[in-house]
Write a structure and sequence with these properties.
Elements lengths: L12 H16 L5 H17 L2 H21 L2 H9 L4 E9 L4 E2 L5 E12 L2 E4 L3 E6 L8 E10 L11 H6 L3 E6 L6 E5 L5 H17 L7 H12 L7 H9 L9 H18 L6
Parallel strand pairs: 5-7
Antiparallel strand pairs: 1-3, 1-6, 2-3, 3-4, 3-5, 6-7, 6-8
Helix pairs in contact: 1-3, 2-3, 6-7
Length: about 280
């Protein structure tokens, strides 16, 4: 008698595959309309009434298709890029720092700036687009700033196979870089804003960085490599330390995405255990 292999249940595999299909199709043929919203509502009703897997998978695919299409064709960043055109445009931006600033060796700080309003030729108007800002001034996450600079297109890769920063930021709805030439062309209006969760996370990482670097103050190359591997702070790793990892194909040691997933999964597991949820 032949033994039957009992495959473990994978309840989210079909949902994940449906979401991937919806995103990939929308990435190449984006569409969003009231007709599609109506179709999503009808499929949602059918999935509730029938309680079958196929309508649920179709609902997930259509939902992700619509969301990704909307994000890539009718976003604040795209609307701003269309209004500014392809040429550099001087403007003033009032907004908030929404990413952890990174200081370059030349003293320029780069960060993502969530705009609240922009001013062009003395005319101010609301704006909810995001910029990749560069300013020769020290800022922190959550700072409310006012910057005068030039909105330019983000540079693409110069060599084949090089990391495409323009495509990476485009998926975050960032289509313009704001270049602030001088430190006096900007001002910090308020400190301590933004998400308190992200601020707490950054303070926690700064504490861990201090613990890791203890008694290694005279070895910046060593601390930079350790911080890059453990905490993902690759911008602190010297190029001469990072280059051998690139040449040997082991640069993935600096990518801590797997560590992040493990920490998140552990926290969720502990939470469900405390809540006494069944394993199923």
């Amino acid at each position: 008698m032949k033994s039957v292999i009992a495959w473990p249940r994978q309840p989210f595999l079909g949902v994940a595959f449906s979401a991937i299909v919806g995103i990939l199709v929308a990435d190449n043929w984006p569409r969003h309309s009231t007709g599609l919203v109506t179709a999503i509502g009808v499929v949602a009703l059918i999935s509730v009434v029938t309680r079958r897997s196929l309508p649920v998978y179709l609902l997930v695919a259509l939902g992700f298709f619509f969301a990704h299409s909307l994000r890539t064709t009718a976003s604040p960043g795209l609307e701003l890029a269309r209004s500014l055109g392809e040429q550099p445009q001087p403007l003033t931006v009032h907004g908030t720092v929404i990413s952890e600033p990174k200081m370059s060796a030349r003293g320029s700080t780069s960060f993502l700036l969530q705009a609240d309003s922009i001013e062009i030729d003395g005319a101010s108007r609301p704006c909810h687009a995001k910029f990749l800002a560069r300013w020769r001034h020290e800022v922190a996450f959550g700072d409310e700033v006012r910057l005068f600079g030039t909105a330019e297109q983000i540079e693409g890769p110069r060599n084949p196979g090089e990391f495409d920063m323009r495509a990476y930021l485009r998926r975050q709805d960032v289509h313009r870089a704001l270049i602030v030439r001088y430190a006096e062309n900007g001002a910090i209006l308020k400190r301590g804003g933004g998400s308190w969760v992200l601020r707490a996370a950054q303070h926690s990482r700064a504490w861990m960085q201090g613990v890791i670097s203890r008694d290694l103050e005279d070895s910046p190359d060593v601390t930079g490599a350790i911080n890059g591997m453990v905490l993902g702070l690759r911008h602190q790793t010297p190029e001469d330390i990072e280059e051998p990892f690139q040449q040997t194909g082991t640069l993935h040691l600096f990518a801590v995405a797997g560590l992040h997933v493990g920490i998140g999964a552990s926290l969720l597991w502990n939470l469900t255990t405390v809540l006494r949820l069944p394993r199923k």
